[in-house]
Backbone:
């Protein structure tokens, strides 16, 4: 044992199996465990997942257990195979370490923050038994809820959550019970890093092979689309801006994953060379500078929050930008003003925060069409506000597949 490792004196004649397990797990979490080929060589738990792109989670394998480390909130999950002796004897619930017996018998999710599409791609909707709200951007989850397969639970009543083997959340600020597990793909900086979190969920159900297959398909299609865009012959790259309006102020969005989408689609981000990111339209100087920026943008994605997406149209946008003569604004002249609220549930829940995270290749394809319009591609998440394109309201009747079967990722032709 290294000098930095905890020093334990173990006596098999004096310590129980549970005590020995405790010390071994403490050593494991404190010192780490072998990674890569050496760790996998003695594994008996079946298929393995290896993290390739994501930064904020890691997976380790033991003889009859796995460990998932979440680098965002510092929590680690000891996942014990239900067929092992450890499953009946070992239970941990601390501020840093929790244990679960896998594969999970059932689970629930906090649907305010959780992208359920990852479970759909894994074929695990049959084990989803509880949701905290029916504002879900998934027609098949809604179908299961409508059919009585999923119950609505009150997340403010902790006793309702204890009936599930695991309760998945995406908000690290809330108080967590022993069966809570955080899932935070949104913390990653690139679209593919976010999509790889499907492997994080896969280990809880022993479906690593499926998780690997889905991610490989998504990644290959995404990279193919990126390559085609990089090889495109154009006189100039379209300039793209992500902007939102709130309380009289327009802001340029600088979220890294959005800028990455634009680069991979073959565009150029306007805000990469602009230091000022907020513009108060009631301030004449700000307004003039804001209008100058609008005149150099070829494609604009309006992220403005609205409680009425159906009623948010081109007139709403023009009113918000506070300009009468917009003849110099290229994205209006070329009808390239977009919003990512095309798929929505109950005017509040956007599939952009769900399905778009697990299948970023669809978002990339949307952006390619926005930057280099062909007119023969139907976008999935982006709607063209300049062409008065409306929203698609997600409802249970739109689910036409067996909800217990795995949903196949969509691949876009990129030849």
Residues:
């Amino acid at each position: 044992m290294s000098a930095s490792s905890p020093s334990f004196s173990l006596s098999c004649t004096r310590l129980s199996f549970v005590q020995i397990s405790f010390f071994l797990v403490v050593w494991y979490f404190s010192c780490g465990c072998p990674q890569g080929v050496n760790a996998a060589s003695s594994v008996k738990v079946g298929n393995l997942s290896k993290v390739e792109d994501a930064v904020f989670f890691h997976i380790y394998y033991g003889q009859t257990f796995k460990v998932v480390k979440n680098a965002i909130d510092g929590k680690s999950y000891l996942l014990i195979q239900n067929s092992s002796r450890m499953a009946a004897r070992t239970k941990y619930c601390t501020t840093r370490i929790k244990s679960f017996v896998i594969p999970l018998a059932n689970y629930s999710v906090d649907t305010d923050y959780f992208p359920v599409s990852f479970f759909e791609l894994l074929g695990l909707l049959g084990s989803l038994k509880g949701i905290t709200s029916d504002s879900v951007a998934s027609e098949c989850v809604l179908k299961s809820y409508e059919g009585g397969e999923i119950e609505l639970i009150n997340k403010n009543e902790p006793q309702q959550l204890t009936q599930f083997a695991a309760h998945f959340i995406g908000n690290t600020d809330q108080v967590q019970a022993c069966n809570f597990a955080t899932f935070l793909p949104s913390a990653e900086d690139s679209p593919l890093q976010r999509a790889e979190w499907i492997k994080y969920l896969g280990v809880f159900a022993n479906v690593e092979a499926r998780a690997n297959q889905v991610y490989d398909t998504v990644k290959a299609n995404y990279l193919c689309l990126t390559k085609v865009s990089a090889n495109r012959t154009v006189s100039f790259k379209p300039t793209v801006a992500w902007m939102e309006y709130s309380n009289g102020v327009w802001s340029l969005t600088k979220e890294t994953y959005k800028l990455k989408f634009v680069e991979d689609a073959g565009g150029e981000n306007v805000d990469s060379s602009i230091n000022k990111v907020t513009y108060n339209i009631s301030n004449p100087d700000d307004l003039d500078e804001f209008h100058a920026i609008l005149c150099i943008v070829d494609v604009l994605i309006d992220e403005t929050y609205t409680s009425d997406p159906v009623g948010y149209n081109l007139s709403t946008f023009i009113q918000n930008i506070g300009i009468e003569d917009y003849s110099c604004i290229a994205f209006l002249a070329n009808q390239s003003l977009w919003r990512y609220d095309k798929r929505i549930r109950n005017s509040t829940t956007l599939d952009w925060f769900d399905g778009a995270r697990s299948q970023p290749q669809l978002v990339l394809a949307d952006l390619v069409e926005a930057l280099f319009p062909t007119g023969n591609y139907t976008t999935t998440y982006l709607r063209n506000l300049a062409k008065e394109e409306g929203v698609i309201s997600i409802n249970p009747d739109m689910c036409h597949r067996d909800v217990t079967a795995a949903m196949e990722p969509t691949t876009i032709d990129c030849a």
User: Anything to note?
Assistant: DSSP finds 14 helices and 19 strands in the chain.
